[in-house]
Amino acid sequence: MINDMQAARETLQAEARTSTDMDALLYLYGVGGPEADAVVMDFIRRMSTARGKAYNAVIHGTAIRVAAEFDPDRDPGPFMDFLDMQPPSNRLIRAILRRSTATWDYPDTAPANSGWGYTRLRRLDPPPVERFTQRLAVPGSIIRVNAANALGDTADVAALSPLADALDDANPAVRSAGAAAVRRLRHAGAAAALHAHPAESQLIALLKDPKRAVRREAAQALVLLERAEAVRDALHDVDETDLQAFEGYLQGNVRTLQQTWAGDTTNV
After folding, report:
1. Are 120 and 65 in contact (CB under 8 A)?
2. Which DSSP letter does residue 252 get?
3. Which of 29, 63, 236, 245 sits a CA distance of 20 to 30 A from 85?
4. Which residues of the chain have pLDDT under 70?
5. What's the pLDDT at 112?
6. How far apart are the first and last CA of the chain?
7. Which InterPro entries match (predicted)?
8. What distances in angstroms separate CA 219 from CA 35, 125, 164, 260, one per listed residue?
9. CB-based contacts of 62, cutoff 8 Å, min separation 6
10. pTM above 0.90, yes or no
11. How many CA atoms lie within 13 A of 207 on its CB side?
12. How far apart are CA 75 and CA 68, in angstroms?
């Protein structure tokens, strides 16, 4: 366990990457301040040229996220060798990955990748909300699900407008992801911003969605966004299974969302 600045610095300066690197980055994230920022940025610069055992993509990406958390308005230039990822050069591998993940055409929208800086670095071109709004127009539902998740990770209530569209998507997985994303934005002040917003009425409408998973995601979001009354009003219109679930949400028994990155606290 890393519990002081010197230990964190020495860990990240080591030749080979180990599991302790994550502890060091999370310690620095928790401490914050100019010294922690300097250690993280020095590590990122070295990761940009590291190879073999000296390199780990997850650790590199996490370091970029920590830097973005420290200063969302910083120059993204030092991160672009990582964020501007290119597909594998091997055509067969590229084809297999495209079929299995549907993300190589949009690497910024892959679940792990988006949480490594794309969602928070405001000076990216295009910036986060605009970037993932564009992805919501992509035909592939996997990309749209990932884009909705990413919009929820932007910490920007401007994302509520494109998420209102996600809540009305033809694909239930996108609607569900949209509800979870709006819920996540409560940490950025979405409860107040939702007042009379299209996303508010869309969330309430989803309480009657044909898909149970969507109904439940919407109900949990509404409870956490200080709109429990809408869920109470729906109790007389739901079946016994949903009734029990909704009553549980009203009592605070909501599920924890998946973390967008190792230091994420917006999942509760």
Report:
1. yes
2. T
3. 29
4. 85-104
5. 76
6. 24
7. ARM-like (IPR011989), ARM-type_fold (IPR016024)
8. 43, 35, 16, 21
9. 22, 25, 116, 261, 262, 263
10. yes
11. 26
12. 10
- List the structure tokens of 50: 């590291």
> Number of C-alpha atoms within 13 angstroms, CB side, residue 94?
10
| The predicted structure's pLDDT at residue 159 | 99
Asked whether the beta carbons of 70 and 41 are under 8 A apart, the reply is no
- pLDDT tens readout for residues 120-139: 999 999 999 999 999 999 99
Residue 96: predicted pLDDT = 52
Q: Which amino acid is at 53?
A: K
Q: Are 121 and 72 in contact (CB under 8 A)?
A: yes
Position 135, amino acid: R
CATH 1.25.10.10 fits 125-258, yes or no: yes
Say how far apart CA 236 and CA 245 lie, in whole Å: 13
- Which helix (H) or strand (E) covers residue 44, if one does? helix 34-47
Q: Quickly tell me which residue has 């080979």 as its tokens.
A: 16
Q: Where are the domains of the chain?
A: 125-258
CA–CA dist 128, 108 (Å, integer) = 10
For Cα atoms 212, 218, 222, give the angle at the middle one, nearest 5 degrees: 145
Radius of gyration of the chain (CA): 20
